[in-house]
Specification:
The complex is a heterodimer.
Chain A (H helix, E strand, L loop, with lengths): L14 H15 L2 E2 L14 H4 L8 E10 L15 E10 L5 H11 L9 E5 L2 E3 L4 E10 L2 E12 L2 E2 L5 E6 H9 L20 H19 L2 H22 L13 H20 L5 H22 L11
Parallel strand pairs in A: 1-2
Antiparallel strand pairs in A: 2-3, 3-9, 4-6, 5-6, 6-7, 7-8, 7-9
Helix pairs in contact in A: 6-7, 6-8, 7-8
Chain B lengths: L2 E8 L4 H21 L6 E7 L2 E7 L8 E9 L4 H11 L8 E5 L3 E10 L4 H14 L25 E9 L6 E2 L3 E2 L2 E2 L3 E3 L8 E3 L3 H10 L6 H18 L2 E3 L3 H8 L6 E6 L9 H12 L2 E5 L9 E6 L8 H24 L11 H7 L6 H11 L3 E3 L3 E2 H19 L13 H21 L7 H5 L6 H9 L4 H9 L14 H20 L13 H14 L6 E3 L2 E3 L1 H33 L7 H10 L1 H36 L4 H7 L7 H16 L1 H22 L17 H22 L3 H9 L2 H10 L7 H19 L10
Antiparallel strand pairs in B: 1-3, 1-7, 2-3, 4-6, 5-6, 7-8, 9-10, 11-12, 13-15, 14-16, 15-16, 17-18, 19-20
Helix pairs in contact in B: 1-3, 5-6, 7-8, 9-10, 11-12, 11-16, 11-18, 12-15, 12-16, 14-15, 15-16, 16-17, 16-18, 16-20, 17-20, 18-19, 18-20, 21-22, 22-23, 22-25, 23-26, 23-27, 24-25, 24-26, 24-27
Classes of the chains: A alpha+beta, B alpha+beta.
Chain lengths: 315, 799
């Protein structure tokens, strides 16, 4: 694929150019280009396009940007590398194609990383998400010693064996952009690739938000309300799963309310992260909260397998 | 003879698994080949991040035909026996059996079985898929479309291709044809991922290696290591630096690259204010790079590091070095932040007053704050042994008792010309330092740096202690109390370090013995063997006297066991009550327990009656535990002394189940050894054994014929009288010498028995007709045994 890119849209100049280049690359490969999920999540994996679609036998190739929130990582805008809100670029391919590593390296070349100039390495890193009941084997991908992506072959999601296995690529967009733009501070990233008066930086867009959310996450988030929200989301998730459970009289034992239930699981997970940042969860309680979210994820995953998207064949 | 080449190429194998995996592959395949009746001359395994390879030379081309004969019953045997034989031999009728004749047995059936040999290729094609399917990876995965079905192939990462060729040197090798989960064995592989992406066709090992090398893959991991080490040393040298070598890192890095290219990166000098160990570990753990020192420097690091890339970059590696430098800088910024944070106030300082009071901590000092926090947070040491805070309190008490014993010993004071007052002041100082060091010994577990790098525990405590102005003896003891970590580790020699090191180890040992979690077989998760060996080395190499004298006797280790055991018992009991109280609270909450019952429990806890009851029951248990722990120490001591060249039998001869003074045991062994080196000693041993044997034979008899005491009036021979006098004298002198702890003198006193014992056995017949005379002579022999028993059980000595 050769597309003439104007200089101001080149990944080495522009944050949004980086995203567009990745979109082009993966769209050309045959991925659906999806949009971010409209809820607060901790990572691109939480998007139902990964968590749920990684389950079941159906073919699924998708790519999307996911804004990810990690309340605990807030640094009031003072740390050049750490953010409580950042972007992940997520690619999920099921089943994983045999040349997934080559495809990934191709995407790096597309954004201007020359593998004969930069040292690209696959270093062991086995990924696990205790809250999603998910794990896989893979690597962190290094470019000149910096981790720029996570590469995982999902073995289990929602506590369910993946059959077939999906390959997941997660690019840390800010890090990658800092690398290709040659910038040391995330807030100095050129967002739109313009210069002079037209130039907008990452800091222009996000610095104020980082400061405000850090205050919120660490100091002001209403913990008693959040504790209530956690309970509510948990109860609602279970209730929706119950309500959508196929009845014995149904011809096709199909579950009818997985996605709405899964939203509540995501919500519970994010509320837990906020409570954790506020420091109101003790070490022993932590484990039990994680387990509660995991149980919701597991129930959603099991229900998903009873839907068409989960591979339930029409009778 | 033909050679076999096997390559299993996959996506990147974790570095830590490669060496073992290649070894497993060799063993599994060669074992399988041998079992199938083939032989081979040599086999060697190779690996890179993307392949395991095996080179087997001189493999036989076929397994031998096997002929065997199975003997059956006589031709006249009953039908049942014949049928049984046919089944066993796998024959369908008696017509297939042969008949052999024997002059004695007559005619009998024999089955002739022959199994034709198989071609090596066939055997290999059958073996390799089985090995791949059952390969012992620590973690393995499924992948690709095949993973939709259960039971699909598992490998450490996706397996991409298999090369398997076989054939003699003089001929074109053939591809051994087999397939596993859609991967068909062939003769095509690939070189370096970026430098040589094209396919390579290989014939046998020799051209495989050279073609890979041309495609920028160094197959042999040990050669990659040599290249990295040599280039790293050179690049350091060329920059006026010395490489800080690190074998484990070298091994790991060699498993991350197929084509090693050594480069140098740098960071700002400002970061050099961080302790060198922290810099080294930060760069090593996160970036897998080596650090360097200015040429000739012993400890200081330079701001240059050595990295190993996997490509020969177009720009000579400038971008790579620059990029790595950036990441190292970001990591060192974190480390610098940790290092500075650890020297500042904790945010929850206002909650630490209670814990600070408990340990006499000064909350103006950073390390004191960390200890207070360790206690305040109730960080668990072990579920049954309580919190770190409780542990530190116990160690402090024990260290205090130990240092009191040490401060009596002149070898820990350099000058001996000082006045009593100076000495006393020094002793008090020693005691204060030891308790202070014990209180701060675990404080660094709450520091950010140790949280990041647990292996720096102790070393960081020492640095932070020095920074807050602790006495150097205290700061050193914080690091040294973890030592020695094994048979060759450094043994601290300062009394403050010794006291805390012994207290820490004894507390751990007694604790785990009290809850009955002793090492079994190869399982020793708390490294208790190492702790006990540590105590042995601390005591022996510093010649420490741990004894306390009571009117009823003297104890050494057993006294310390008792002190520690009491502390542990109180803790165990309190924790038991705490659980009980919690349960009671719950029951009360749901109305299942009358209110007020809780306070009864609390009263029970502190009542004298309960305390007495507890003491009664625990005394027996204590003694059993203490002797079991002591036996564990004896085992460690034996291993230690044997390594030093001491004779096993001599150690056994001087140890009794209650021997708790390690130093005395060693001195006895030494004295006994020197005695047995002399002719006197050897003859005395022979004489004593002879006496003991005669006595043992007598004592077996139902009626004891040995007199209770020796009666001089019954002596008839001169030799008897002389021996009696000599035994009396030797026993007295040896006893006296033992009192004075002069074991050589004791041995010397005994050695004079040699002559009278020899002449007794030469001139006197023990078995006299007169039973009274005989009994009296036996009693005299018993006296010889008793005299020697004072120093050792001679019957356990070999020779």
């Amino acid at each position: 694929m050769t597309i003439e890119i104007p200089a101001h849209m080149h990944p080495s100049r522009s944050f949004q150019g980086l995203i567009l280049t990745l979109h082009n690359y993966w769209a050309d490969y045959g991925c659906l280009i999806l949009q971010p999920y409209d809820m607060e999540v901790g990572a691109g994996t939480f998007h139902p396009a990964t968590t749920l679609r990684a389950l079941g036998p159906l073919r699924w190739n998708a790519a999307y940007v996911q804004p990810s929130r990690r309340p605990k990582d807030g640094r009031y805008g003072e740390n050049p590398n750490r953010l409580q809100h950042y972007y992940q670029y997520q690619v999920v391919l099921k089943p994983n194609p045999p040349n997934l590593q080559e495809l990934y390296l191709g995407s790096l070349e597309a954004i201007g990383v020359d593998p004969l100039l930069h040292d690209i390495r696959f270093v062991e890193d086995d990924w696990e998400s205790p809250t999603l009941g998910a794990w896989g084997l893979g690597w962190e991908c290094w470019c000149d010693g910096m981790e720029v992506s996570q590469f995982t072959y999902f073995q289990q999601v929602c506590g369910i064996e993946c059959a077939p296995v999906a390959g997941e690529l997660t690019y840390g967009l800010e890090r990658l952009a800092m690398y290709v733009q040659g910038v040391d501070n995330v807030y100095d990233l050129n967002f739109n690739g313009r210069e002079g008066a037209e130039k907008v930086t990452y800091g222009d867009v996000f610095l104020q938000a980082e400061q405000e959310y850090s205050r919120h996450n660490f100091e002001f988030a209403n913990t008693s309300m959040l504790l209530r929200h956690f309970e509510d989301a948990e109860a609602e998730c279970k209730a929706l799963l119950d309500a959508g459970t196929p009845k014995p009289s149904d011809n096709l034992a199909m579950h009818r309310m997985v996605f709405p239930a899964y939203d509540q699981c995501i919500k519970a997970s994010h509320v837990f992260n906020l409570l954790d940042a506020r420091g109101v969860i003790s070490v022993t309680e932590r484990q039990s909260y994680i387990l509660r979210v995991r149980n919701l994820a597991k129930a959603c995953g099991e229900a998903f397998l009873k839907t068409r998207a989960g591979g339930l064949a029409a009778a | 003879m033909p050679d076999l080449l096997l390559e299993l190429r996959s996506e990147e194998i974790p570095a830590r698994m490669q060496r073992k995996a290649a070894g497993d592959l060799r063993k599994m395949l060669t074992d399988g080949l041998v079992e199938a009746g083939l032989t081979y001359e040599a086999a060697r395994e190779y690996w890179t991040p993307r392949r395991l390879a095996l080179d087997i030379r001189g493999l036989t081309a076929r397994s031998k035909d096997i002929r065997e004969e199975i003997k059956g019953p006589s031709t006249t045997a009953p039908e049942q026996a014949v049928q049984g034989f046919l089944r066993k031999a796998g024959l369908s009728s008696v017509a297939e059996a042969h008949v052999h004749s024997d002059p004695k047995k007559g005619d009998f059936y024999v089955a002739h079985i022959s199994k034709p040999g198989r071609a090596a290729e066939e055997i290999i094609a059958e073996l390799v898929p089985g090995i791949i399917k059952s390969f012992p990876w620590p973690k393995s995965m499924r992948w690709g479309p095949a993973s939709a079905k259960p039971g699909s192939l598992r490998w450490v990462r996706p397996l991409q291709s298999i090369v398997c060729t076989f054939g003699p040197e003089t001929e074109e090798p053939v591809v051994v044809d087999f397939e596993i989960d859609g991967i068909r064995a062939g003769n095509v592989t690939y070189g370096h991922r970026f430098h040589a992406p094209g396919a390579i066709t290989v014939r046998r090992f020799d051209d495989y290696v050279s073609k890979l090398e041309a495609a920028r893959v160094v197959l042999d991991a040990d050669r990659r290591k040599e290249i990295i080490l040599a280039d790293a040393r050179n690049i350091a040298f060329a920059n006026g630096l010395d490489l800080v070598e690190d074998e484990a890192l070298l091994e790991e890095v060699s498993g991350l690259v197929e084509w090693p290219v050594v480069l140098m990166g740098e960071f700002e000098r400002d970061f050099l204010t961080i302790p060198g160990e922290v810099i080294r570990l930060t760069i090593r753990a996160n970036q897998k790079c080596f650090v360097t020192r200015p040429h000739g420097a012993a400890e200081d690091l330079s701001n240059r590091f050595v990295l190993v890339a996997n490509i020969e970059a177009n720009d000579g590696g400038k971008e790579i070095a620059y990029g790595n430098g950036k990441v190292v800088r970001a990591r060192l910024s974190d480390a610098l932040y940790f290092w500075k944070t650890d020297q500042g106030d904790l945010p929850d300082l206002d909650q630490l007053a209670e814990s600070a009071a408990k340990f006499g901590l000064d909350l103006n000092k950073p390390l004191d704050q960390r200890m207070a926090r360790l206690d305040h947070l109730n960080v668990t040491f072990h579920a049954k042994l309580g919190t770190q805070g409780e542990r530190v309190a116990r160690i402090k008490k024990l260290a205090s008792q130990i240092v009191l014993r040490l401060s009596r010993q002149p070898n820990f004071f350099q000058g001996d010309q000082r006045s009593g007052a100076t000495l006393d002041a020094e002793r008090i100082g020693l005691h204060e330092a030891a308790t202070r060091a014990a209180v701060l010994a675990k404080a660094d577990l709450q520091t950010e740096v140790v949280g990041e790098f647990p292996e720096l525990q102790g070393a960081m405590g020492r640095k932070y202690a020095a920074l807050q102005g602790e006495d150097s003896a205290v700061a050193n003891a914080i690091e040294e109390h973890y030592k020695p970590q094994g048979p060759s580790d450094y043994v601290p020699s300062h009394p403050v370090s010794i006291a805390v090191a012994l207290a820490d180890k004894l507390d751990t040992l007694v604790g785990f013995w009290a809850i009955d979690e002793k090492p079994t077989g190869s399982k020793d998760p708390y490294a208790l063997r190492r702790a006990a060996l540590g105590v042995v080395r601390l005591v022996l190499e510093n010649e420490i006297d741990l004894r306390t004298h009571y009117s009823s006797g003297t104890v050494s280790l057993l006294g310390l066991f008792a002190a520690s055991f009491v502390d542990h018992s109180i803790g165990l009991r309190l924790r038991g009550y705490a659980e009980y109280l919690q349960a009671a609270q719950k029951l009360e909450g749901v109305g299942l327990m009358p209110s007020g019952f809780q306070s009864e429990i609390l009263d029970g806890l502190i009542s004298q009656e309960a305390a007495d009851k507890f003491e009664e029951g625990s005394a027996d248990r204590y003694w059993e535990t203490a002797l079991s722990l002591l036996a564990f120490f004896h085992d460690r001591l034996k291993v230690y002394l044997r390594d030093q060249g001491a004779r096993h039998d001599l150690i056994d001869a001087v140890i009794t189940p209650q021997s708790d003074d390690l130093l005395q045991i060693v001195r006895r062994v030494e004295a006994l050894g020197s005695l047995l080196d002399t002719d006197e000693g050897k003859n005395l041993l022979a004489g004593t054994k002879r006496a003991a044997n005669i006595l043992a034979a007598e004592e077996k008899k139902k009626k004891t014929l040995v007199a209770e005491t020796v009666e001089p009036a019954l002596f008839r021979e001169d030799a008897e009288k002389k021996l009696y006098a000599a035994v009396n004298q030797a026993e007295k002198e040896a006893g006296q010498a033992i009192q004075n702890e002069d074991f050589s003198a004791a041995m010397l006193a005994l050695s004079v028995l040699r002559e009278p014992v020899d002449s007794f056995f030469e001139r006197v017949l023990v078995n006299d007709e007169d039973q009274a005379v005989r009994a009296n002579r036996l009693a005299l022999l018993a006296r010889i045994r008793a005299a020697t028993d004072q120093v050792a059980d001679f019957s356990k000595i070999v020779g």
